[in-house]
């Protein structure tokens, strides 16, 4: 379930003064955040609210989006010279005939756009693997068009502008984002390509040095590309060989993609905040199964009551009571 962590409707945005606007996004993030070791009470919502401080509700960046081709519209908007991540997003959806579906955006179209955008990225060629444990792919066209940077930028924008979290990232990829990738431990289970998996399992199951050396010759092309083609003196050498191969597949071959993704995530100071608050941001990127409770549902809505003392207000208060009773009854079943 995707959760919007910040509400950035016009009336709710806190606008910094001119002096704050002169600061870089990075400095603003560093100034407003508290290191995890200094506070156990800070939440993801707190961090995202701080990152949202530079957003100027008086200025907008317009996105003309066709639901049938979300990525094309997003790319055009992000690459527009006038685009600024600190501007409020204004989305206009068009149908296949190019007719406008609405000119004014008070938050709903933006959240729908960001939800569709995160869904697109989750299933795009830029990532590979199970639906909720994606690792980076090595897509030449994506690198040529700098789409990994745009993907990172889109993730950062969605988080800070009130959209859903990109919580489809595998734990090992998340660690590569917030730590030095050279020190990230990966395992055979992180390798998603069937042919590569078969090769690794063959090497892992080699029962003799002769058998192992035969496999080295059989897979010499891949091993050479990975920088792992070397003579082995004992059967025990296969463990180190496997570690090097897995590390190459998960990290080594995707370094260019990872670098650009991280550059995109620097938008609005998100990556810097992630590096400081690794454990807090993990819930936004790594999918975790959570039980839906009454509090979960209630937390998804902000109640907009009519003026106090009005007839509408009295009716609304009754309705809210019934609504909460209904949720509690459902939870108790």
UniProtKB/TrEMBL annotation:
Q: Name one GO molecular function term.
A: ubiquitin-protein transferase activity
Which keywords accompany this UniProt record? Transferase, Ubl conjugation pathway
- Does the keyword Membrane belong to this entry? no
**DNA damage in keyword set:** no
- Supply the Gene3D superfamilies for this chain: Hect, E3 ligase catalytic domains (3.90.1750.10)
Q: Taking every annotated instance into account, which residue ranges of this chain make up the domain HECT?
A: 75-121
Q: Which domain of life is it from?
A: Eukaryota
Question: What protein name does the entry list?
Answer: HECT domain-containing protein
């Amino acid at each position: 379930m995707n959760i919007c962590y910040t509400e950035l409707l016009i009336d709710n945005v806190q606008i910094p003064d001119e002096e704050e606007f002169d600061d870089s996004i990075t400095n603003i993030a560093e100034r407003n955040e508290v290191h995890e070791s200094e506070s156990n009470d800070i939440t993801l919502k707190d961090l995202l609210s701080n990152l949202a401080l530079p957003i100027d509700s008086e200025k907008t960046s317009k996105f003309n989006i066709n639901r049938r081709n979300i990525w094309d519209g997003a790319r055009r908007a992000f690459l527009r010279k006038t685009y600024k991540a600190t501007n409020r997003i204004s989305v206009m959806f068009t149908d296949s005939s190019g007719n406008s579906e609405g000119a004014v955006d008070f938050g709903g179209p933006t959240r729908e756009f960001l939800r569709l955008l995160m869904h697109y990225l989750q299933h795009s060629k830029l990532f590979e693997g199970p639906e909720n444990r994606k690792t980076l792919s090595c897509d030449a066209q994506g690198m040529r068009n700098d789409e990994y940077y745009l993907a990172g930028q889109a993730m950062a924008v969605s988080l800070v502008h009130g959209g859903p979290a990109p919580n489809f990232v595998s734990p090992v990829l998340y660690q590569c984002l917030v730590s030095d990738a050279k020190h990230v431990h990966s395992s055979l289970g992180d390798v998603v390509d069937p042919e590569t998996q078969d090769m690794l399992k063959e090497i892992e199951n080699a029962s003799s040095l002769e058998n192992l050396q035969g496999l080295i010759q059989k897979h010499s092309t891949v091993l050479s590309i990975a920088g792992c083609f070397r003579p082995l003196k004992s059967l025990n050498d296969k463990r180190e060989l496997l570690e090097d191969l897995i590390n190459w597949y998960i990290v080594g071959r995707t370094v260019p993609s990872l670098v650009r993704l991280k550059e995109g995530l620097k938008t609005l100071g998100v990556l810097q905040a992630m590096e400081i608050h690794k454990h807090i941001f993990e819930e936004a990127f790594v999918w975790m199964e959570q039980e839906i409770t009454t509090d979960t549902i209630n937390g998804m809505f902000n109640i907009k009551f009519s003026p106090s003392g009005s007839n509408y207000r009295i009716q609304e208060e009754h309705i809210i009571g019934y609504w909460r009773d209904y949720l509690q009854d459902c939870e108790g079943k």
